[in-house]
Amino acid sequence: MSADGLVKDGLIKVGILISGRGSNMQSLVAASKRADAAYAVALVASDKPEAAGLAWAKDQGIATFALSPKGIGKPAYEAAIDQALRDAGVEVIALAGYMRLLSGDFVSRWQGRILNVHPSLLPLYKGLDTHERAIAAGDAKAGCSVHVVTEALDDGEVLGQAEVSILPGDDAAALAARVLVEEHRLYPQILTEFVRR
């Protein structure tokens, strides 16, 4: 009996939303290819047709969907993304560097089934510029959080966190690079635990 076929039929189908190079998406895909994987990546979608992560996903043989919201408005854009996810059989959505705020309507349609990785130790530093803010505050630690997405920005249940020390002389770029390493480790672990619930 091959590892494909029967085993893959039982995997939870995940859709990943990206806006850029998709480094977290790549870590999620890598985890989906392990023998003990709990999920399969059914679709990678982006609001930026030129996003580098889309080309990478295509090279991996993963279905992709790209649509810019420019000129069509948020409701039509989100309806198209929603349909693409459903057409791919997606059961759980993972936001991986997706830089658009989801509407309350979209979130409610996927209630409790959207995860996000955020580069701070929530509830600290919701939103943007998290590393600059942590350094400016004189914090000893920074890190990342994986949380359930709700209508409120970066406000859902935190499912896991990873810490890194803020070192003397750190700037935002240096800190971001170390936090990103932890994001790549933490996100696949928490997504796996989430889909096995």
From TrEMBL:
GO molecular function, one term: phosphoribosylglycinamide formyltransferase activity
InterPro entries in the cross-refs: Formyl_transf_N, Formyl_transf_N_sf, GART, GART_AS
Keyword annotations from UniProtKB, A to Z: Purine biosynthesis, Transferase
TM regions (residue ranges): none
Site (Raises pKa of active site His): residue numbering on this chain: D154
Catalytic reaction(s) noted: N(1)-(5-phospho-beta-D-ribosyl)glycinamide + (6R)-10-formyltetrahydrofolate = N(2)-formyl-N(1)-(5-phospho-beta-D-ribosyl)glycinamide + (6S)-5,6,7,8-tetrahydrofolate + H(+)
Gene3D superfamilies noted in UniProt: Formyl transferase, N-terminal domain
Annotated GO biological process: 'de novo' IMP biosynthetic process
EC number: 2.1.2.2
Domain Formyl transferase N-terminal per the UniProt entry, residue ranges: 13-190
Catalytic residues, chain numbering: H118
GO CC, any one term: cytosol
Binding site for (6R)-10-formyltetrahydrofolate: K74, M99, R100, L101, L102, N116
Pathway: Purine metabolism; IMP biosynthesis via de novo pathway; N(2)-formyl-N(1)-(5-phospho-D-ribosyl)glycinamide from N(1)-(5-phospho-D-ribosyl)glycinamide (10-formyl THF route): step 1/1
Entry similarity comment: Belongs to the GART family.
Functional note: Catalyzes the transfer of a formyl group from 10-formyltetrahydrofolate to 5-phospho-ribosyl-glycinamide (GAR), producing 5-phospho-ribosyl-N-formylglycinamide (FGAR) and tetrahydrofolate.
UniProt protein name: Phosphoribosylglycinamide formyltransferase
Native source organism of the sequence: Sphingomonas parapaucimobilis NBRC 15100
Higher taxonomy: Bacteria, Pseudomonadati, Pseudomonadota, Alphaproteobacteria, Sphingomonadales
The gene coding this protein: purN
